[in-house]
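Table S2 (continued). Query chain:
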Amino acid sequence: MGFYKTPAEMHDARAKRFEKDGKRNWAKAMSGEGDSFFGKAKKCFAEAERNKKLAEEARKKKQKFGKK
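Corresponding output:
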């Protein structure tokens, strides 16, 4: 992965993005734009939590990208 230096950094960025998308979808659902946005928000929040856990695991293992 050329853009991120560590897997933890990558997962943190993904978690932040999914959190942002989840909040946006939640707001759309609450404003009456459609019930489908509740499901999308739930999936985004779940994915954000998954990526937060993966980032923490990567930090504990001190993982880095590189050649094997």
